[in-house]
Amino acid sequence: MNKFYILWCAILSVRVFAQDYNASLIPENLLKDANAVVRESAEDYVLKSVKELQVKQTHAVTILNSAGDEFSTVVIPYNPNTKVSNIKVEVYDAAGKLSKTYSKKDFNDYTNNPSAALYVDDRILVLRPMSSQYPYTVKSYYETTTSNTVYLNYFRPVTSYDMAVQKSTFTVLNSSGINVRTKITDRPLAKLTHSTEGNLMKYSYENIPALKHEDLAPSISYLVPQVEFSPEKFTLEGKEGNMTDWNSFGKWYYSQLINPVSEITPEIRAEVQALNLSGTTSDKVKTIYQYMQNKTRYVLIAMGIGGWQPMPAAEVSKKGYGDCKALTNYMRTLLSAAGINSYFSVIYDDHSVITFDKDFPRMSGNHAILMVPTEKETIWLENTSQQHAFNHLSFTSHHRNVLAVKEDGIQIVDTPVYKPEQSMEKLNAKIHLGTDGAIASDVRFEFSGGQYDSNLRLLGLKNDEIQETLKNRHYNLKINELKVNNLKNDRDEGKIGYDLSLKANGFSKKIGNDLFFPVMPFYEAVMFSSNDERKLPFENSFPFQDDYEIEYSIPVGYTFAEIPKSSSITTEFGSYTIDFTPKDGKLMVKRVLTINKGLYPKEKYKDYLAFRKQTASRDNTKILLTKL
User: Strand (E) positions, 272-423?
Assistant: First the structure.
């Protein structure tokens, strides 16, 4: 083992002291689309025991322009169980000449509070060593020692768009005797080089060009290759655990993180008794859930066991706030007091689907929800929002799996899969056309599923803000008067609806004495890039359906010159139909757009673009009114 440790130290010393940061040495292919280039990034881990992990990190990035300044910031996290030492930061000019140095005293020390947390014990050191002369290079080096060995987790060479990588390495020297499993996820973006020499594992990527964001691109975590690590034994905040398999990890998770903060106190029992529960299990769960929503609010709590352990349910009960972990466990404890079993469930909440590997247990996930099995169905509860509907998960939580934590282990369970018609915008409109080209319209909107999620924000706005939001949404209309009435969130059914009355000028255009107008006034025009050199796959992150019914009334003395023909389009991406029906001197228009959820290769983007252009063209069908 000693010879590998000596070799590892020798490699590190060469890495730290013998680099040339002349910007002219950056390969030409790495400059394209890049605002910054990582010249070298090295993470060197030494797993000494189940309770000791040492990490040495070197990062050098060349900033090419002002848009890349954000990548110059040096951020070093720490907490009571992670000690930082030997901090060095150097700035080099374009020729690679050292121009300035910094040490720990030059850093600002902040609470690590990305979500306005009320309580956190994580902290960060921050330094922003920018230069007015481009390009320039910022190199940082620091060492950490931690007892939280569970955080030996993954190596991902790219973390952002517009950043190229010249070289990125990751080593693990395992002198602990603990088995560390690895999982390699390859992507076309870069090829991994790796080797194992005794207890030393080495991984590297080189010459990764910058990713440029494209319309409908999936999350960057899906696009980037990575290596994941999972020590079979670990420590988190002084508590040793077993991650040999999901069941072993689940038993530890339940006994160490969940059960100790789930006491049913007399006060909690009294809360539940006061609700006078009746009806089916689903009825009782709904009553408790809506009680919990009305009582609590979301506040990030990042104290406790590495930010993973919920705040005690009794404290949430008294204080009325908590984060996703705390509120989920409080809801679980309330249900338990009512004799209803439920399971704290860890999930990856993301626009793109990220799932847990059934064969690769590791400490992961970024959100907590609650799974409640009943005699008829499984109920899923999102506990962080006072507005969220009962038994409704947002589109960033469906079509994936969760880690349901039980006393006897972890069960990996799939969340619901929504069909397009379960994520619907339903529109019913009556539009009166004027001879001056103006319209007066009364419209009823109703949203469900993923479209419910995207409209929840309306509930937090003031009346004038709601009006301004909807004016912006219907920017294609020259609105001079708009009123919103009956905005309602149906938390039982998971629907948001409102009535919209508006008047707009210039909707119809005059040709002599005749008028013509576009058939579809209410839709958000979707503009996608038609770049012929598409490089990334594309994704429709949730399925949806827009179902519009519009009744047009025309001015006295006018008639329809011609009624357009009904048409339909069907593709793998979705479908579209539009029907025109004259009735009693009016025109009824029914239009249904269905978009399927899917992740598609870049080669199909032109076909998708053609489909959306076809639907937009039909939405823009013009109807001619002739004066009698």
Answer: 297-298, 301-302, 321-322, 343-347, 367-373, 378-381, 401-406, 409-414
